[in-house]
Amino acid sequence: MQALLRRHRNAVLFAALIMLVAGLDLLLNSPEPGRFEILSLPFVVGAAFLLAVLFWPAPGTAETKAVEETLGHRFLNKATLGGKLVPYFPLAGIVLIALDVVYNVYLSPTSMLQIHDTVAILFAISLVAYPFVPQRFDRERDFVLLFFFVLVLMLVVPLLIVRVYEGNIDTGVNAYSSALLAPELRAILSLFGISTTQFTDPDFGAPGLSFTTQGGDSVSVVITTSCSGIYSFSIFAAAFTAFILTEFNRTNWRVWLLLVLGFGAAYLANLLRMTVIVATGYLSNSSDQALSSMLIAHSNAGWLIFLGWITLFWLLMFRFLFPRKEPAKSAKTKTVAICAICGEPLSPTIPGVRCECGNLYHSSCAQESGRCPACNRVVFGKETQKAHTTRGQ
Which domains does the chain have, with CATH numbers? Predict the structure, then answer.
């Protein structure tokens, strides 16, 4: 099975990444917290199984390999002062977990683990495990560490900065929705003839849109942090960035273009998701029907759009950025037969003879030797064979 999966490495890697992103997104961004997190396990376990089978060394292969000088490896090498800080990774991971526990017990309004807590703990676990991963998995361990590192930079660090700046431990990251989601969503909806009004919710501090359904009822939608799609976007952005850093050895225009297109496509897919949700409510006849329809769209349409665009994007990326290499056509070379006795080449101008075992000899060498040195059969040259046949008659 390992040989079969390795023959289709790109397809298997693509499937594993899709399952990993889907599982993590379902775990961190469940449509109904407390009910659907368990469904993330088959995705994560399936992705781990595919990656393990794909990268597990085949029997008889060397246990170590040369370290690949990828962008990610060079970045981590500089960040750790040439690897001098790597032995302290487990200690840093343990300290990070302890700090998160202290934060939840003494500062957070709830001691329950939130999404940013889960991200921080997973990053800490990757730090603890990093030095113990065998060197032959250097690219894979770099990918995991960079993935959670970027995820922390996108989800945890901005949240802490906003809370410290505003002096409010309950503050969420609503700046993203206020500046990069609500205004753009209003503009797209207006293109479809849906008039909306933007406001700020006093309870959540998050932006919202109010509109009138086709039935004439007024409906308001508040775009909180959990509903903004920032978690799905961050998971994709972290996985995509880690993939680029661990797949390329140097930067070029294609790498930068790929990063821009990846982030841009994720942002547009999120706007499309929000457009579908609001449009579903707009087409309803009453406010109750609108809220029910938008909840269904929020739980299902987002997944379909997210998986749809990410599948298309990764397929196009593998198609154009990593085209399948056709096997090089071997040049036609003229094989030269070598005498198994004297080691000199045979030619049409020099008489030769083939033994029953397949070895070739000069007729003169065969006459002098009398027997094949490989199988010890009696070998005759052309002239000797004719004479032997005449005497036999």
Answer: 172-332 (no CATH), 334-393 (3.30.40.10)
